[in-house]
Each structure stands twice: as C-alpha cells, then as structure tokens.
C-alpha cells in the first residue's frame, strides 16, 4: 500500500514532463504514460504523490481528456498508479515478490549480476575456519546456543565501531543471520500492518520485499543521481506522513553508490530527534569505499533524543556464505533478541568464529578487494560507454552496484534479452546490480552484459508491469 505524500499541480507536472510528446506515429497516451513513469522512477515526483485530475492535466498539456484518461489507465494497469473512488490517483511502484525462491546455485554458466555477492577472500576464510576449529573445543561442552552472538564476535564488531568513531560496547550488539535477518527483526519489533515506512528511491530490493511481507506502507523520497539525499524533502515527508521508521543506506548506497556527507548525517539525527522517529541505517556496504572512505557512522552524529538502529553484515565485506549480520543500538538489543526467539536461538558457532577472525583482520584483504572493485567498475563503465552511448551511469564512490539510466524505457526488455545471452540483470525498479564472477573473465563478462542492452527491442513499456529507464549492471 502507498501512503499519499502530497499533491502536484498540473502546471508543475507539465514542467517536470518536459518534451514528452511522441515524434512518430506512437500513440500520445503511451508517450504520456512513459513520461510519468520516468518521473516516479527517477524520484523527481515521489511515490505517493497525488496527480491532477484528467481534465485539468489535459487543459495544461493541450491534449484531449481521452489521452490523459488512457495514460492514467495504462499506469494503473502497470501498477504505477493507484486510484480509489472519490480520491485523487496517486503514483506507485509495482512491487513484485518472486513466486519462487531464487535458485542461486543453478545456471553455473550464467553471469549473475542480479545478486550483490562478492567471492570469498579464500585465504582469510580458510584461516577463519581454522581459527574456529582451534576455538571450538572449549565450547563443545555447552549448548552452542548464543542468542545475542558469540562474545568474541560482538567484541570484534564493537571494536570496529569504536575505531570508526562510534564508541560501542559488545552488549550493544545482536548478531543475526545476515542483514536481511536483522531487518526482519527490526520490522517485527517496530512495524504493524499499515504502518508507514520512509524509504529512499531507489533502494535495495530486499528491503522492498521485506516491507511488502510485513504489509507496511511505503513512503519514498527520491535520490538525485549527483547530489543524493534531499533532506528538506525528507523532513517534509516525515512531518506530513509521520512514518514509523526511516530506512536509509548512507554509505555507498545500494544501488547508486552515493555517500551521505557529515552534514547530512547530522541533519538526519536531528530529524530523528525532532520528530521522534527511529532511523534504520543499513551499513552493509560501509567498508567498500572505492574513491573515498565513509565518514563516521551516522549514529555518532545523533543528538539526544535521536534513535538510530544500525544494521551491519559480513556479506559484502567478507563473504555472503558466512551468513553473519548484526544490529547495533544505543542501549541493549533485548527487544530484538526477544523477537528472534520466535524463529531461532542463535547463529552457527563455526561461522561466527570465522567471521570474527575475518572482521578482526580486515586490512589483510580489504585493500585488494577494493582494488578489484575499482577495476570492475572501470571495465563496466567502459563497456557501457562503448556499447550504450546514450546510457548515463551513476558513478558512485563505492559499493558493488552501477545504477544506469537507459536512453529508452526498455529496462525490462533489456533484462530479458540479457538473460537469453547468459546474463542475469535486475531492472531499475528492483535496484540491485552485483558481480559474482572474478578473475580474467571480467572484461568479457561485462561486454556480454552490455551488448544485449544495445540491441534490446523497442518495448511498449505501457504494457509492462515494471518497466523503466533504469537498470543495474
């Protein structure tokens, strides 16, 4: 469900649309519908914005009311517009929960750019499990159940926060089975069906799915591809909508790679305190700065009265196969531990020891990982420029993703064409764009990704359920 975030007048909407009219024989209603889709997908007009009436918009645009009515109908059909009798129609994003779980182990020859999952630093992971074997004997006499996490791991995580400028004690950490598990515990604790949650747009697809499963109402604020967060707009939406939570990815945002500066972190903390709304901070990409390192954690800038809930993970930094994440709060994470009891009694001991070893030895492998990611980004940007002269990628300063604006609204068709040629992509509405392969095949893999984009068919996006001009790669 989408909560209305305000309204836009016909004149302002026409100004945002710009030159939307079709140059050829294409129906005008399709061109108008595509133009409106691009506005909501780019974030220039937020999800939840009420559109002007058909008659008013038709008068301002100088078209027939039939054209506007057909465009609105096409948007409703594709899930980009929600209408209720007696109320203005509001812009939406179609959220599609996969009917089946992703079979990540299948299709071995596929280039899986749909999962932000780096390969393991083999030596560190090997040494980590050897460390686990050495530590295990003293734990075998017990139950092996540690609902808050192994003490050695929580101490290592707390030490890293302190090194980054946020004094933290091990008792402030709850270890989870990955960042998605951490997010689920936060939502289980704070959110009831129908609650509003403020999200960045675009954001991590897993977050959208988690909100859908909790039947929460998404309220979005668009990210500018260069300037990032519009915190004036964000606070305005908070003031109007009173969301239950604010969810942000300030460090090398997934999928744009953008970085929130210190002034923005201060402002977010002030918004949390002033409006008494918790801010959930996803830090899964924080160690993957490619051009700059991240500022101190957002929680370190929080004034009295702010509530900052920080989520972290070893998946992007070390290896997703460890399945280790965590929650960091200002006090004790007891409420999240209680929520956890409904599903499990703690994480795997061996994986926690391996993660503890890797996180205690970040400098042994992170410089090489960052260097490799810079090479991958350069190769991808080169391939996009060579094969897609009209595409505009966002050159993020870190992370694992490249968020790209295509010259035509063919993201869904592009993803389908790429899959036929052995490349898995996620269209822009879903927002995740990783790499899972490495080694000498990098350049050819990226080229295999870019070529299908060049030859993607002219797709009638008015008939697609989630087409847009964005894709990840």
TrEMBL record:
Signal peptide: none
Keyword presence, Transcription: yes
Pfam families to which the protein is assigned, alphabetical: Aminotran_1_2, GntR
InterPro entries (alphabetical): Aminotransferase_I/II_large, HTH_trans_reg/aminotransferase, PyrdxlP-dep_Trfase, PyrdxlP-dep_Trfase_major, Tscrpt_reg_HTH_GntR, WH-like_DNA-bd_sf, WH_DNA-bd_sf
Location of the HTH gntR-type domain: 26-94
Entry's family note: In the C-terminal section; belongs to the class-I pyridoxal-phosphate-dependent aminotransferase family.
Full protein name: Transcriptional regulator, GntR family with aminotransferase domain
Source organism (scientific name): Gordonia neofelifaecis NRRL B-59395
């Amino acid at each position: 469900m989408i909560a209305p975030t305000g309204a836009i007048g016909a004149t302002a909407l026409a100004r945002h649309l710009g030159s939307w009219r079709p140059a050829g024989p294409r129906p005008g209603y399709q061109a108008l519908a595509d133009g409106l889709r691009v506005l909501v997908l780019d974030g220039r007009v937020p999800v939840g914005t009420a559109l002007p009436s058909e008659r008013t918009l038709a008068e301002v645009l100088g078209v027939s009311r039939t054209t506007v009515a057909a465009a609105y109908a096409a948007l409703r059909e594709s899930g980009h517009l929600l209408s209720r009798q007696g109320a203005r129609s509001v812009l939406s994003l179609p959220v599609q929960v996969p009917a089946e779980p992703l079979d990540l182990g299948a299709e071995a020859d596929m280039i899986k750019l749909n999962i932000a999952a780096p390969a393991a630093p083999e030596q560190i992971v090997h040494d980590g499990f050897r460390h686990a074997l050495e530590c295990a004997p003293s734990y075998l006499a017990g139950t092996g159940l540690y609902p808050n996490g192994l003490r050695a791991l929580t101490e290592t995580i707390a030490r890293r926060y302190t090194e980054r400028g946020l004094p933290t004690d091990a008792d402030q950490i709850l270890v989870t089975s990955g960042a998605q598990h951490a997010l689920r515990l936060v939502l289980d604790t704070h959110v009831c069906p129908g609650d509003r949650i403020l999200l960045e747009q675009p954001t991590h697809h897993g977050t959208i799915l988690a909100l859908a499963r909790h039947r929460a109402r998404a309220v979005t604020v668009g990210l500018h591809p260069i300037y990032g967060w519009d915190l004036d707009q964000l606070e305005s939406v908070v003031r109007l909508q009173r969301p239950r939570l604010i969810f942000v990815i300030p460090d090398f945002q997934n999928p744009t790679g953008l970085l929130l500066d210190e002034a923005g972190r201060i402002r977010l903390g002030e918004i949390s305190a002033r409006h008494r709304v918790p801010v959930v901070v996803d830090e899964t990409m924080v160690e993957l700065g490619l051009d700059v390192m991240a500022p101190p954690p957002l929680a370190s800038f929080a004034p009295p009265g702010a509530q900052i809930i920080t989520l972290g993970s070893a998946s992007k930094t070390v290896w997703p196969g460890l399945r280790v994440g965590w929650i960091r709060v200002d006090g004790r994470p007891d409420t999240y531990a209680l929520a956890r009891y409904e599903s499990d009694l703690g994480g795997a001991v061996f994986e926690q020891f391996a993660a503890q070893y890797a996180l205690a030895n970040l400098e042994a492998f992170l410089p090489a990982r960052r260097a490799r990611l810079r090479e991958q980004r350069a190769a991808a940007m080169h391939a996009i420029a060579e094969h897609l002269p009209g595409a505009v990628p966002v050159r993020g300063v870190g992370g694992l993703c490249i968020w790209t604006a295509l010259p035509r609204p063919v993201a869904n068709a592009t993803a389908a064409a790429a899959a036929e040629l052995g490349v898995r992509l996620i269209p822009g509405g879903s927002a995740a764009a990783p790499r899972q392969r490495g080694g000498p095949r990098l350049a050819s893999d990226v080229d295999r990704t870019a070529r299908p984009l060049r030859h993607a068919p002219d797709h009638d996006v008015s008939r697609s359920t989630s087409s847009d001009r964005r894709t990840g790669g």
